[in-house]
């Protein structure tokens, strides 16, 4: 069985790491390069950097940040934010990123998934899905959780896989930042319907939540932000706990 992965996520706004609750109310969480280097030293398996307010000018700034991150860490990292065409992917991979995460751009132009997979390999393409539970339906959202679509989580995830996505990163907007656990029932259903890895996101508040998403949610990886950024859970401490609970994690 493949080892379960622990992935700190760094949301980048104006060159700083920030964290919000339910996709709003952001607060400063520190320098993204220093944080990434610390997580790398502490045993994180991967990192995700998301440029949450990407603009044309921001792209240049973000590219420079990606270069700095690549120079300071020795684990794989994924970057996302306003990746709309292959030149964006090429720019970020050339700067040192290992994978790209696409969300709104993939919903608007599903062919982008296929283009990335064909040109760079499926392993490079992470399709991120922000979905909110509304009247029994997991509705997918655009633009960082601001614009609802008619797409359902399960239908869209299956389509993304068929187009060549290498992984699905599912963030439950319902659970994001409230620290009461991941959407494990939904994650288990999602994992059971796909043949590619599923990354859980949204809801981590204590070590048990990671255990539960690996066991009950069938998640391949667990992503979290504030519990790591604000020192509530240490990565080594978390991995020791998970190993003691019988979960296969990389030391």
Element string (H = helix, E = strand): EEEHEHEHEHHEEEHEHEHEHH
On the 0-100 scale, what is the average pLDDT? 91
- Beta-strand portion reads 25-35%
The low-confidence runs, each spanning 5 or more residues with pLDDT under 50, are: none
The helix/strand class is: alpha/beta
Please count the helical segments.
10
What is the distance, rounded to the nearest whole angstrom, between the alpha carbons of the first and last residues? 15 Å
Basic shape: globular
Helix content: 25-40%
Query: Strand order across the biggest sheet?
Result: 1-4-5-6-7-10-11-12
Regarding quaternary structure, how should these chains be classified?
Answer: single chain
Gyration radius from CA atoms, angstroms? 16 Å
Q: Quick one: how many beta strands?
A: 12
The profile of the biggest β sheet is:
8 strands, parallel, barrel
Plain-language structure description:
This protein has 251 residues and is an alpha/beta fold. The chain contains 10 helices and 12 strands. It has an 8-stranded parallel β-barrel with strand order 1-4-5-6-7-10-11-12, surrounded by 7 helices. Strand 11 (198-201), helix 8 and strand 12 form a beta-alpha-beta unit. The longest helix is centred in the N-terminal third of the chain and has 17 residues, at 56-72.
Layout of SSEs?
Blueprint (H helix, E strand, L loop, with lengths): L4 E9 L2 E6 L2 E7 L1 H11 L4 E5 L4 H17 L4 E4 L5 H9 L4 E4 L1 H5 L2 H10 L4 E10 L2 E6 L4 E6 H11 L3 E6 L11 H10 L4 E4 L5 H9 L5 E4 L1 H4 L5 H10 L7
Parallel strand pairs: 1-4, 1-12, 4-5, 5-6, 6-7, 7-10, 10-11, 11-12
Antiparallel strand pairs: 1-2, 2-3, 7-8, 8-9
Helix pairs in contact: 1-2
